[in-house]
Amino acid sequence: MRLTPPAAPAPAAPVLLPGRDCSLCPRLAGFRAIQRAAHADWFNAPVPAFGDPQAWLLVVGLAPGLRGANRTGRPFTGDYAGELLYATLARFALAQGRYQARADDQLVLCGVRITNAVRCVPPQNRPEPAEIAACRQFLAAEIAASPGLRAFVALGAIAHDAVLAALGLRRAAFRFGHGAVHTLPDGRLLADSYHCSRLNTNTGRLTAAMFEAVFAALLERLAVEPGRPMRNLHGTVAPS
Ligand code: SF4
After folding, report:
1. How far apart are CA 225 and CA 235, in angstroms?
2. Is this model's pTM higher than 0.85 or not?
C-alpha cells in the first residue's frame, strides 16, 4: 500500500542529552568508571539514540550491553541483539546498508530511531528502578524531539513501562504482552515484543519469526489507519 507523503512535522523540542559523565545514577557511574579503567578504547558513556531524525517509529530497548552498545557507542551494536534487530529492520526496508556490528558501518535507518530506557550500561544488564526513573527524562526528551513519531516498539516490559512513564501514562491501562499493539490516548501505537536478546532467542522465548511478526503487525495497523505519514526506503509499508 502506498502512503501519503509525510506532512511537515512541527518544530522539534531541543533534545536534552546526558553528559558523558552523567552522575545521576551513582552505581552506574561507578561501573562506567571501572570499564573506562579496564577498556580505555571502549565508548563507556551514556549511549545516544541512533537513526532517522525524522523518525515515525521509536524502538526502545532496555540498556546498553557491556560489550555491545557500551563498547561501540551505538544502540544494539556489537552484540547478538543487534544482529536480530537490524536484520529485522532491513527485512521491512527500514534500514539500508550492511550491519557490521560497528558504529562506523554506514548503516542508515529510514523512518526509525533506536534508544534505550537506560543509557548507561548496568551490571548484569539489570538497571534498578531508581536508575530507570532517573534516565526517563532523556527518553522523554527523545520523544519530544521527534514530533513525527507515530509508533513505538518496546523491547521488553521495562522498556514498555519506560515509554508509558515518559508519556505520563499509567502502566495499569496498558499491560505488557508480547505481540500486543496498544493504541495510546494520543492515537500513537505501542507495540510490545520480548527483548531480542541472545538469552531470549536461545531459550526459544523469542524467535526471529515472532520478532518479525511484531513489526509486520505494527506496519499493518499503521497502513490501514489514515493520516499516519510514515516511510521506509520505498515510501511504502509493504513488508515483503
Ligand atoms: S543511566 Fe541515564 S540518568 Fe543514569 S547516569 Fe546514565 S545517563 Fe545519567
Report:
1. 16
2. yes
